[in-house]
Amino acid sequence: xxxxxxxxxxxxxxxxxxxxxxxxxxxxxxxxxxxxxxxxxxxxxxxxxxxxxxxxxxxxxxxxxxxxxxxxxxxxxxxxxxxxxxxxxxxxxxxxxxxxxxxxxxxxxxxxxxxxxxxxxxxxxxxxxxxxxxxxxxxxxxxxxxxxxxxxxxxxxxxxxxxxxxxxxxxxxxxxxxxxxxxxxxxxxxxxxxxxxxxxxxxxxxxxxxxx
Length: 212
Description:
By secondary structure, the chain is an alpha+beta fold. It has one domain: Maf protein (Alpha-Beta Complex), CATH 3.90.950. The chain contains eight helices and eight strands; from the N terminus they run βαβαββααβααβββαα. It has helices spanning 9-16, 39-54, 78-84, 87-95, 127-133, 136-139, 189-195, 197-209, and strands at residues 2-5, 24-27, 58-67, 74-75, 101-111, 152-162, 177-179, 182-183. Strands 1, 2, 3, 4, 5, 6, 7 and 8 form an eight-stranded mixed beta sheet that branches. β7 (177-179) and β8 (182-183) form a beta hairpin.
């Protein structure tokens, strides 16, 4: 059984769209988040911690809104910025920009305690140096000082732009993120899942996981 680390049942349902019936369940586990400018090190750290906690294959996701004209802000800090500034304030800041292009990005981290054969998808995405810089615990090292557990990462990306809030659905930044003429908050669940950054990452993961 694959454990998807989340307290959001909607994420589990989205994962079930791509994985065999009964093969995934949610896991409520609050892992520590390292401070990083990229999603990869955060997801990798979380996957290592969650695997050690569950002693079973785990999937962790980290996602964020990256605004081109703000050098990628809020990026990995999207949740904190949403809680402190609010999405309306993010829209107000972006409204003064000449370039309001943005992207939702998601990185999935998978860990099952085993190594991975070489493939076109990179292993660890170079996060080992970033994690090691935060200390042995952040690198996910075992108590005996052995190498960090291998983590496989899968990325999803959807382009769009920042607009005034529209729509009553979704959550988070969905009302201010427009893709192909609609905000995520204006899309129904099936439409949003079909184009979402998390869905695209899950699709890549499911294709790889089928042969795991």
